[in-house]
Amino acid sequence: MIIRKYFILSLSVLLLAGCAGNDISDTPDEERLPLRFETTLSNQLPVTRAVDNKIDASDELLCYVRHVINSETSVYTQVQGNLVTIKDNKPTTALYWDDFSNSNSAETDLRTANHGLQSYYGYCYNGATVAKDALKDVSGELTWSASTNQSADGIKTSDLLWSSVQTLVPYDHAKIESIKVPYTHAMSKFTVIVVAGDGFTSTDLDKAKVTLHDMQTKGTFTAPSAEVSATKTDNVTMYGTKRADDANQRAFEVVVLPTSSLAKDKHLATITMAGNTYKVNITDAMLTSWAKGIENAASQSGINYQLTVTLNKQAISVSASLAAWTSVEATAVGEILFDPDVKTIGKNYENVKDGDSFALWMAEADADFGTDAATTVTYNGTRFTNDKPVYWPNGTTQFKFRALAKQTNSHLLEAVTATKVKQDDDSKLPDLLWGTSGDKAIAPRTGDVPLTFSHAMSNVVVKLETSNDDKSKVEIDKATIRITDLKTDGTIAISSGDISIGNTVGEVAVDGETIMVPQTISTDAKLIITLADKKTTYSLKLSTIDNITKWVRGNQYTYTIHLEKEAMKFRAVIEPWVGTTGSGDATLDWED
After folding, report:
1. Cβ atoms within 10 Å of 415's Cβ, excluding its own
2. How many C-beta atoms surround the C-beta of residue 359 within 10 A?
3. Quick one: which of 575, 525, 515 has its CA closest to 545?
4. pLDDT tens by residue, 548-575
5. What CATH code is assigned to 187-334?
6. Helix or strand or coil: residue 126?
7. How does the average pLDDT of the chain come out, rounded?
8. How far is CA 78 from CA 67, 173, 326, 465, 487, in A?
């Protein structure tokens, strides 16, 4: 891998004019041309150092300065060279132009045409201690490793700077031209900005931990040609910067070797905070935002790959872009959200609309749901959102979910928070819809929890017909129908959706599709029809209809009554309630 561009840190070797003799031993120091070094931050490109954006006074800068001959084809031939150490803007040993020259021969004399001094390569270890044999002086090959647990010092001492081969400066330009040694970041940097969202406090950030997976942590750098060869991968714990007292975000930083894999779907990072664990995989969106900083599906030198991750309890979303070295950033949100995926119920109902809602219960795998709902979930015109946020308390505890609503003339779903089932002021029972996430508890997830709704009540329809014979037919228009001796209350079990029958007995007026409490039909239950004259009444004991002995939840029972003068005939059928399947994971199917 060859990397030649990015942020520049300049090291200038100033060659100041003066008189010099042909023989080093005969030239006093004050008359010889000294090599003076100035370390600065380049103004050409923005530079972000690992720590404080500056070179520390204790930092040692290495520069391999060599006397070379430049051929007509710009091929440099080395005459001699030395590794120079600069500390606090000064070489640790005084150096002069003539230290790189020998006037005994034109081939070794700096003053000869096409001869000059050149920066062959440079390194800055940022305070790291490097083994004596880690650097091969002549070739510029350096063995380097990054810390796998990067504290403030760890990230600084992992951040290697380098400089590749530079243009020759001839001796006769010493008064007006300096030897430039542009330093750049040899490493790749990752910055994860964690934002405490719903369910977290800013102080939760203080104990948060971010780990990057399968990063390159050791390899060989060859500064003259800007080449890197990585030899080891490992997981790396990121350094968390100090959080401001009032800040709800905290930055985590790490530097690793370039060529770290940035392939799609790779498990890039794990974030743990307040008992919750979040997994970040590389997505197409991240790769698109980081495209300028990726080569061969891997990281490059001098690039800062930044992610901004907003954490709500147990959910995460990620986006990406480039930040300050040359930078790359990405973003990540959530709470427990629910997708009932309700589109239509029945052939004649409207789509779900703004304001539709349902009450939601949640409980651990073996726990009871209790009587109080955890939240109300409301459709906002785009999706269902929680009126009161609910969260996964940690990354392992599994939960089951149940929901309750009723269908009304104005709403497909209208939240019901009470488990008691009874008639309203108009003596009508609610069309209850019961929702479930399934029999098994659900492990914490980042996606929505799907809910399936079904009718919890029974539906009764009575159709009247009469003879075509004028002598026997009756006037059935405006006839009224009621059923007596029915149980009209009960309690719905949130866990199962079953309704236990109460003790209230009464009659129910039947008008079109009429909602009933599921029950076994009593021997005293009667279907009574009163014609428009208010005088003629027909009566039928429901228990005499052998094929319908009870009303079951989710079923529609249709009684067709044939009336003639002095006669009454009937037939009855059981049909599944109108069923409509929604789209996606959740459906609305009425059980047979």
Report:
1. 20
2. 24
3. 525
4. 888 999 888 888 888 887 665 555 555 6
5. 2.60.40.2630
6. coil
7. 78
8. 6, 19, 34, 112, 104
